[in-house]
## 1
Amino acid sequence: MIAVPTTLYRPPLAAPVRRIGAHEFDFSRRVAVMAVVNRTPDSFYDKGRTFALDAAVDACVAAARAGADWVDIGGQPFAPGPALDPADEIERVVPVVAAVRAASDVVISVDTYDAQVARAALAAGADVVNDTTGLHDPDLAKVVADAEATLVVTHSLAATRGAGPRTQFARPSYGDVVTEIRDFLAERAAYAIEQGVASDHVIIDPGHDLNKNTMHSLELTRRLSEIADLGHPVLAAVSNKDFIGEALAAPREARLEGSIAAAVVAIMQGARIVRMHNVRESVAAVRMTEAILGWREPAGPLVHNMGEENQR
């Protein structure tokens, strides 16, 4: 019998109020919605729909208008394959960052593990570096520190075993998946702080599906509070992942409901940033969750059963 948490978990955040870019977030009572925009021809979800520069910029601006707090811009996928030359990655992501920054004050992160790319993106207006390799590049933390930016530290087996980015791991295995992820993130977050990243500029991501099978990712979601116990805001990147598809026997185009359910469970277990593809639906689900939890006042006028006559 699986033990399932049933109550809201409140993470012991060392610094719940964060200034990220132009925005302030009180993660004791607020969840940020991060929209995903990939300028890649082979993204696992959108299959290149936002590869063109104009399409990528338009998608970022549209996400902000739809209520996203944050847009995450990537130039190459996590999936196994040859690494993209940093100059090519810069050519993909930096024009998008610059154009979005000119059009909006939305928080911008760049999904990269390369210090050169991070430096160029931060100079162009990015606020956050979202590194899926657990600081594989030894210079990355220093680049983020020098820019006084925010850093997302993510778990993957490639990172824990010292392998290069985009390394294939067949049949990944763990002793206790959550404990191993927690220990890795604690060590890597401490390393980033040692390298000069401010402690209140560190975010951690347990890396759903990154070198993990469906059972690993389900266990991780159930026990996410153990990751949030570390005291850094937790990013849950659950949207349209294969663990959702396999749990529901759903193809990629039919994972919206499962993605929202996973995001809400992650919030209840301490996540304070959710990385999502379907922005409008995800924003509505997150804001409703905040309202139910008493963190947010209802947005609309209160008229139902507020007058002299009761309504259905």
## 2
Amino acid sequence: MEKAEAGKVQLLTHQFFNETWGIEDIPEGYYSEKDGVKLMSSGKIHTANEGCACTMGNVLTQFIEHLVLSEGEYALIDMEAGIEHFGRGIDNGMDLILMVVEPSYKSLALTGKVSELGTSIGKPVYLVFNKVDGENQEWMKK
């Protein structure tokens, strides 16, 4: 479902947001709040046969692109592990990429690809090592 237009590939998608908006514009019932921190969830597959997450990726991309934060406000977007969100362009609206790295070969190997993809869209990539102990600290750094 793509069409070529003037040498560019354009995805045929629905425009969900037309105007900018702020955190205060999110209606009650769409988030949980504790101590001034609002938590929302979007685009997760919960059961088998739910279908493609493409539409939710499109909504999330537009959600981020149209969000305007006030001074002292921050948005932390928790993505599924992996790199699919880079392919969907969700990360383009981010200021930076923060990757949580587990002490497993797959997680450590993914750091290179995430760094490469982040750099390709002009976003700095920071790594946070999780479950670090005396036994794995050195090889995780390497």
## 3
Amino acid sequence: MVPIQKFRDVQKLYAAMTDGKMEYVFYGAESQAEIHYAMAVKNNLYDALEYAGQVEEAAKSHRKEMKRKKEQRETSAEEDRKTPNTGEFLSGFWAEDRLIPSITVTIFFGSDKWDGPLSLFDMMDVSDPDVLACMDNYHVRLIAPAQMSDDEIMKFQSSLREVMLFIKYSKDREKLSKVLKDNEKRFREVERRAADVIEVITNAGIKYDESEEVVDVCQAIQEMRMESERDGERRGELKKAQEAARNFYNLGVDVERIAQGVGYAVETVKQWIGLAGDN
């Protein structure tokens, strides 16, 4: 047997009052920057390991309690002490023990549609209903911005909302601009960690002061676009200067006079017209 150790990206214990009693659920989140084509197996393993861990913890707790009672001789009456039957003793899990449900959610931080399998059956080439009836399927619970409506994304109560919206429209400049405008208040106060996620995933060019706790994404995008436009203008001016230098040189104009006319150093102009290194 090969020991297996896996670590979830995020795991939280959720508690809710239902039917007059407290119920608990483990929620695990797996973050994916790329599509994982074996996600059903990966998540199924995480959930199985979680349940195996709960069984082991229950067994440890029972062993510890029985040892404590034996050492301290706290009870003398048989009804005051639980005596496990053979099955309970072998498994370490008693008949009245209960597992806490484990639910794993996959969050896909990509603007493309998830085209990977969303269940174990999707990963198999089996169609025989008799075979499938003997098997248990496992479904991937997926959060992917490209496959969610804006209304669904807006239900998030954390900065994940802005992250998902931005990623969803990151490849469509016109739609992204509209989203930023329609949700301007939210995007002007994005948590720094959320802004980092947006930048890493989309390479949007978001820049901010490291001392800032919240980031004005709208302003950052606007400044990035203005800088891009200025770069475009500079490249255009440079191209015009290079073309003018070559044309004047072909007309026999002296290199020094060309450099003075286009506003660049003589050595730079020489490089443009292929005279670099000449004396």
## 4
Amino acid sequence: MALSRPVAWRIDDRLVGYEAAVAAMEERVRAIRQDGASELVWLLEHPPLYTAGTSADSAELLAPDRFPVFRTGRGGRYTYHGPGQRIAYAMLDLRARELDVRCYVHNLEAWLIRTVARFGLVGERREGRIGVWIRRGGAERKIGALGVRVRRWVAFHGIALNVDPDLSHFSGIIPCGLEGFGVTSLAAEGVVLSMPEADSALRAGFEEVFS
């Protein structure tokens, strides 16, 4: 089915609280489903916090008092969000795309892979490990995470790209429940850029995958 209108984009330069972001996404999902509102990609940063997805195990929260912890309806386990990490919340109508959540997750990973490729980095998928990984020497480090919720075929939540966050903040959790793997960022891989430059790459990568 062809899309009836272009995807809208919103960029917030201030830190956005997690609960406020979820409430805004919920309202946009309702408007897409009931009122025919346009799809939306929302680029933002959160203050330091941990989120717990629907599969989160409390044993994986290693420092429960370090940052606020929010239970969320997205899939996955514990994730860190904070300044220097670009969140791209995608509110997309799968009824106008493909009614296939697995395919949608694959496309979110492709979005991250195409984004980091614009800076000369090779992002890779790994069987059984959702997200995008960078191989350096014999080690693999996660540079981008994703989490999805779908309500009546309208998807929301989205991806998180580590541009230049404080990577020590990930030590308060076992990220995504995966022990033995590190976390990296564009800056840690030698790619120093502004958030607007990261946003431009995210938008170009999105258009390559979803247009």
